[in-house]
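Dissemination and training. As part of the outreach component of the grant, students in the summer workshop were shown how a complex can be specified as a set of sequence lines and then modelled as a single object. The example used during the hands-on session is reproduced here so that future cohorts can follow it. Participants entered these lines:
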Amino acid sequence: MDVTITVAPTGPIATKKDNPTLPTQPLEIAEEVHRAYLAGASIAHIHLRDEDDRPTADLDIARRTIDLIQERCDILIQLSTGVGLAVPFEERARLVELRPPMATLNPCTMSFGDAMFLNPPGDVRELAARMRDLQVKPELEIYDTGHVEAALRLRDDGLLGEEPLQVSIVLGVRGGMAATAENLLMIAGRLPADAVWQVIAIGRPNLELTAIALALGGNARAGMEDTLYLGKGVKTDGNLPLVERAVALAAALGRRPRTVAETREALALARATVAADDALATQR
Ligand code: KMH
Ligand code: ZN
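and obtained this result:
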């Protein structure tokens, strides 16, 4: 079985002080994503930063970043609507108006470290409906057990567009599930049989849990949003070593990275988006 590799190069929390190779500005992000694409990534999960490196949902910065990426490669853009804990929901939700092929959908409010991650039920339903109408495929972020039911309720209410569901099992956020193999198995076992899923393992257990998820048939996400280290005390030199590590793990299990076209097919991405992307690709 092939594997979809997502690169998550930036995230909302780490800074260049934590790891100077963290890409934060549009060109830095685009170049890192391109390197990851050449190594096998077919999805780029994108967080944006302003000129001062603070998380932002600024549409111009988003457009510029997407353009710089798509000038370099046809990787599928997945905009984060999580954005950053200090950014209001309304601004975060506006990002889907850029009609990326994919965006994240965080179904529940929760504690997130020392702050709150606000995803009020009514706003989440509105965002889900807007994404469905714009044919933006949601990636459902599951940080805790009850989030599975919240996500399935959205599906049952017809708010999630075409199946299969695309799910991230997020482990290791303070306020969500701990990063343990038991939690991964438990959530994976509660997803619909045809759901497409990956693990997002934050921090030190990133490697082990990514390996377990791959062995179970899940996809892989790699990048500096999830860990800044390759091993104890060894900072990663950019995103590429993390992506290469995920690709190597998959290869050891006999799994080849999907191309962009294969990932589109595996996710049943909407025709309109495919056509628009193809039109752009032929202009390059
Ligand atoms: N930052 C991760 C804990 C999102 O961006 O919407 C989860 C995440 C979700 O990537
Ligand atoms: Zn994210």
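The first strand starts at residue 5 and ends at 7. Students were then asked to discuss how this feature might be tested experimentally.
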